[in-house]
């Protein structure tokens, strides 16, 4: 099923656009080199030959997941597991809303493991700030991504949000496809995962005036993501200091590319995805809450479900006790776990090379990243 032409600027690509787009991507000189660095020369040649024969989105996704994502998982992870598959709606689809750790792999791993369990993959929301080259734009849209525009004036942003909301509603309710979207613009660099009420407001713009009724129809389903080790943790800490020392500091497109590359190729240890139960009682939950407070209320409930779903690792508990200066979680880890985390922490700070490097500050920021999931989950008890 195709979309109305007004969505051509943001929609995923169609089967009849696959071969031309693949040819254009493979014609870029840097693409074979990137594939070789990820897969090795033999595998990269294999996938290039394979891509030249593919003519549907589904077959492309299956092969990319089978080769590229599976290779990345084997190279950079100890284990990746998906839980809560019973909450996937095989007939009507889900609007998966999750916390956000890695620019590319959050949605890639989710789609791979949905596919492994026999489900369809999702469409993926991706910000246009990451589409720094035309071939990246084509690549992600071939993988069922749609574009979230992040530029424009306040007036333009309202129109952009309505446009995006309409696209999501058509995808969910007419096409019956699942969608993945992060709970906020960008990643929570301190891992204190909080849903932006603006996301809820955007989703409601294409429905009825009642916010809860409008978003409930989309079948919002929380997803909790946790990486044992975040390859970008030292880059996030570095950004915290750069912003502290210069409030006007902004990341460049090259910084985004570095984050993407580091996230892809860095070691992640164990990775967990927990799909929660769809949020089907939103209208009852908001009750008589004034309309201007409903988005915040729904966002807060979504946060609780995401925090509840974290599958935590020993370093989360070690970091939480380090951050709080206590022993609240002492039964969750051993002395060896403390020793390993402290050595890891030092190794990450050692990677940072900036003027006026503040090791104590940088270390505290990395500790915070690993601590917050445990602290937020404990706050629910």
Q: Rg from C-alpha positions? A: 21 Å
- List low-confidence stretches: none
- Percent in strands: 5-15%
Could you spell the SSE succession in H and E letters? HHHHEEHEHEHEHHEHHEHHHHH
Spatially, the strands of the biggest sheet line up as 1-7-6-2-5-3-4
Number of strands: 7
Assembly category: single chain
Amino-to-carboxy terminus distance: 45 Å
Count helical runs: 16
Itemize the secondary structure elements and their pairings:
Layout: H1 18-26, H2 30-39, H3 41-51, H4 57-76, E1 77-83, E2 95-98, H5 105-116, E3 123-127, H6 134-142, E4 145-148, H7 154-174, E5 179-182, H8 197-204, H9 211-216, E6 220-227, H10 233-245, H11 253-265, E7 269-275, H12 282-286, H13 291-309, H14 314-324, H15 335-350, H16 359-378
Parallel strand pairs: 1-7, 2-5, 2-6, 3-4, 3-5
Antiparallel strand pairs: 6-7
Helix pairs in contact: 1-6, 2-3, 3-4, 4-5, 8-13, 10-16, 13-16, 14-16, 15-16
Give your account of this protein's structure:
The protein is of the alpha/beta class. The protein contains 16 helices and seven strands. It has helices at 18-26, 30-39, 41-51, 57-76, 105-116, 134-142, 154-174, 197-204, 211-216, 233-245, 253-265, 282-286, 291-309, 314-324, 335-350, 359-378, and strands spanning 77-83, 95-98, 123-127, 145-148, 179-182, 220-227, 269-275. Strands 1-7-6-2-5-3-4 form a seven-stranded mixed sheet, sandwiched between helices. α6 (134-142) links the parallel β3 and β4 (145-148). The N and C termini lie far apart (45 Å).
């Amino acid at each position: 099923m195709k979309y109305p032409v007004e969505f051509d600027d943001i929609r995923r690509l169609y089967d009849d656009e696959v071969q031309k787009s693949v040819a254009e991507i493979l014609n870029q000189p840097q693409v074979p080199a990137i594939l070789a660095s990820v897969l090795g020369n033999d595998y990269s040649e294999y996938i290039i030959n394979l891509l030249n024969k593919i003519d549907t989105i589904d077959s492309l996704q299956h092969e990319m997941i089978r080769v590229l994502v599976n290779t990345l998982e084997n190279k950079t992870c100890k284990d990746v597991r998906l839980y809560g598959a019973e909450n996937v709606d095989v007939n009507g689809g889900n609007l998966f809303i999750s916390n956000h750790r890695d620019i590319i792999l959050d949605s890639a791993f989710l789609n791979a493991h949905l596919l492994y369990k026999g489900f369809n993959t999702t469409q993926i929301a991706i910000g246009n700030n990451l589409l720094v080259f035309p071939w990246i734009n084509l690549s992600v849209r071939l993988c069922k991504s749609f574009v979230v525009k992040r530029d424009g004036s306040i007036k333009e942003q309202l129109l952009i949000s309505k446009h995006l909301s309409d696209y999501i509603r058509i995808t969910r309710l007419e096409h019956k496809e699942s969608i993945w979207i992060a709970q906020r613009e960008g990643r929570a660099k301190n891992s204190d995962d909080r849903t932006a009420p603006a996301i809820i407001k955007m989703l409601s713009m294409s429905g009825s005036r009642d916010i809860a009724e409008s978003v409930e129809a989309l079948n919002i389903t929380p997803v909790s993501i946790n990486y044992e080790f975040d390859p970008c943790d030292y880059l996030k800490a570095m950004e915290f200091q750069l912003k502290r020392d210069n409030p006007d500091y902004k990341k460049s497109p090259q910084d985004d590319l570095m984050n993407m590359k580091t996230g892809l190729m860095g070691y992640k240890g164990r990775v967990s995805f927990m799909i929660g139960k769809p949020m089907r009682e939103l209208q009852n939950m908001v009750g008589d809450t004034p309309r201007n407070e409903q988005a915040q209320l729904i966002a807060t409930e979504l946060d609780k479900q995401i925090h509840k779903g974290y599958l935590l690792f020993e370093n989360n508990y070690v970091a939480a006790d380090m951050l709080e200066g206590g022993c609240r979680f002492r039964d969750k880890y051993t002395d060896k776990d403390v020793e390993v985390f402290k050595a890891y922490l030092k190794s990450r700070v050692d990677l940072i090379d900036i003027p006026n490097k503040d090791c104590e500050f940088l270390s505290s920021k990395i500790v915070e990243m690993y601590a917050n999931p445990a602290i937020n989950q404990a706050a629910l008890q």
